[in-house]
Amino acid sequence: MKTLLKNAREQKGLKTREVAQLLRIDQALISKFENGSRKPTKDQVVKLASLLAIDYETLLVAWLKEKILNEIGQDEFALKAMDMVREEIQNNYNTIKKSLSKNLTSILDEIDILKSKLDKFPKFDSDRITQALELEYTFESNRIEGNTLTLLETDLVINEGLTISGKSMREHLEAINHHEAIAYIKHLIDKNNALNEQEVLSIHNLILRGIKPNDAGRYRQTQVMIKGSSYMPPQPFLVSKEMEDFFIWYETNKNNLHPIVLAAELHERLLTIHPFIDGNGRTSRLVMNLILLQNGYVITNIKGDYETRMRYYNSLETAQTKNNKEDFLLFIAQNEKESLARYLEIIGQ
Question: Would residue 93 count as lying in a domain?
């Protein structure tokens, strides 16, 4: 692990002092991490992986290996104990899978079948189809938040650069910004960039660019209330720590959960933290779709009509106030199932 850290730091052209400043820890600790005389905490492993562009799983496995060896040393019963640990960890993974409801498991199975059909279709992206679906996504995601541009007007604003009479400048910017944010998450996928704090802030910056420039890409500094909901988001001084926990949860669970569940969980967790003064909904849906696209799925498009919007809001509030995510996970899974089925129908599969 020590070699891994040092090589990654040098490849990034960073000094130990600079790494220490960015992580807000003592410079001597970085040196000790690199010479093996001190082990970072798990939280520090997450931050080091993100900062130094090291695959989190690779770094965590190296960290765990050293931690285990340090604890058990050369004890004669070590291998027997390791076999027991392996069995218990496997049982825990099976418990996670069994914790999914029958309804959710059934939909995920149906999604897997549709996904297998999609995987067999070579290069399923078609520019015209993709552009049309992304336009619909921009229209619906903005409509959820109260934007009154029609689908046709959204197309004219984005693709023709026209100004729609009677529509506010904000509504025009929301269409343009969301379109550019979709392009940005696709760029992250092409570059194989992992989801991290900087990327989420960049997505949000695009969403609010030119609308609320002082708040774009920044965590909120005031308390907020969610209109029509009894849920109260955390106080602003807690947001930074909540977001840190958000990314730790992601890194810990990204390889253990079905991609649909992972994407839905990130969507709900980000909305529950409500880290921004505005643009939380659009940002969380983009983060969800970033995860889906990374895993080879299609964009899931939550409609902005009254009935769908109410099901979306009600399932979210249940997750936030009753610690019951079942309805929300089912809602997202059903949306992705419908999106996959529609895409396959469009391409003739």
Answer: no
